[in-house]
Amino acid sequence: MSTQLRIHLVVAVVLLTVSITGIATAASLSPAWKEIPIAEGSYFDVMFSADGSTVYAGGNQLFFRSWDGTNRWGGRAGHVATMSSDGNYVVSAAGNLVQVLDRNGTVYWIRGMGAPIRAVAISPNASLIITADDRGDFHSWTGNGESWGLNRSDLVKQIAISPSGSFVVVTTAIGLKYLHPDMIPFWWDNKSGSLDTFIAISADSSTVITSGEKRVSSHTGSGTLNWMKDVTREAIIDMACSEDCSTIVLGSQDGNVWVLDQEGRILWKYPVGSWVNGVGVSRDGSIIAAGALDGNLYILNHEGNLLAKTRMQSVIQPRSVAVNGNGKRVVVADEFALYGYDILGSPEVTLEETFTPTLRITTTIPTPVTTRSVTIPSTKVTTLPGTTDTPKSALSPFAVMAAVAGMLLAASKYTRK
């Protein structure tokens, strides 16, 4: 082998080393912690506090944890529960009772409704709490547990309180509805049918994004329709939006992550090969996380480029992926545990797929509602501790470097023959 050829070989291998390690370190997932449920069942419905310092997970048992682990508790059922975005309170329902707990797991207040509670919501600073039961009653409460308003309507799917606290959005069995905090409806659209399930409201409360089945819709804060369109090929399993709703992320049964802009234009899709059970997005839309049914977690940038990928122990649970505001942390839940990861590095560039959008518009038809009052009982409850474990680290780029070093050594021995 000539000297020039040997030099070319060495240079090529060195460039390969830089290329491979560059891709491996451009963005990586560093395991931070792992939480195993203390009883049977899985976590789901995960979320971050606005500042990214606190993680909440619901499911068979709710769980609350500061990222550094100094504050952590859980144990009670969390099928119908959520956390205020300031990270200071959790609202949870069990049967007919709704309770509000502080960040230490201490019960702040507890009240009752006339039927099992099916959905709850809490404003960013916990000044407003909404509960809905199986009879179709919507009830609003002040932050200290005083009854604010009551309305009987349709069975609810999901509730969201605007960041301004000035209105409430609910998706019901027959359509979309807006209410004042006193539970008096001021806009509704029964023509949307029962498709809408998921709700996201922009930080300035000017835009409301809803989705369900194959459809995504955008309305103003007063109910005016911006656009409505069918997007996915199969049912939407989860939705997440950036702070201003300019990046709309969908996880679908068609095996794709779909991303739309604020005008409803489909920017790109990313195929993962199995149902996308959970999605999350950073505040500015620059980092997107998606968890697939096959257990793979994908980290993508705003252009649809793959930054990092790792595999969980088992199936990633529905609505069980979240990204913190600055895009530096992600949480994900599989069948066995809740995991926290730090996202390290910077983006790599790959190809994306673009689409031409189409629009479909509906009109609104109002329906009457009735109101009534209820008597509120009061009881005491206690909290339970959680458990923790630390996962093994993912494959390091140094392993790749070692492999390439072996290639260099082999090449060197071959050239001396």
* Count, helices: 2
For the largest beta-sheet, the strand count, sense and barrel status come to: 4 strands, antiparallel
E-strand count: 32
Mean pLDDT value: 81
What percent of the residues sit in helical stretches (DSSP H or I)?
10-25%
Computed CA radius of gyration, to the nearest angstrom = 24 Å
- Overall shape: globular
Terminal Cα span: 9 Å
Structural class: mainly beta
| Percentage of β-strand residues | 35-45%
Main sheet: which strands, in order across? Answer: 1-32-31-30
* Uncertain stretches of 5 or more adjacent residues: 5-25, 347-405, 407-411, 413-417
Can you offer a commentary on this structure?
- By secondary structure, this protein is mainly beta.
- It has a domain at 1-27 and 396-417.
- Helix content is 10%, strand content 44%.
- The chain contains two helices and 32 strands.
- It has helices at 3-26, 397-415, and strands at residues 27-35, 43-48, 54-59, 63-66, 72-74, 80-83, 89-94, 97-102, 107-112, 117-122, 128-133, 137-142, 147-152, 156-161, 168-172, 176-179, 185-189, 198-201, 207-212, 215-220, 225-230, 236-241, 248-252, 256-260, 266-271, 276-281, 287-292, 296-301, 306-311, 316-323, 329-334, 338-345.
- The strands form eight sheets. Strands 1-32-31-30 form a four-stranded antiparallel β-sheet.
- α1 runs antiparallel to α2.
- It is globular, with a radius of gyration of 24 Å.
- The N and C termini lie close together (9 Å).
- Residues 5-25, 347-405, 407-411 and 413-417 have low confidence and may be disordered.
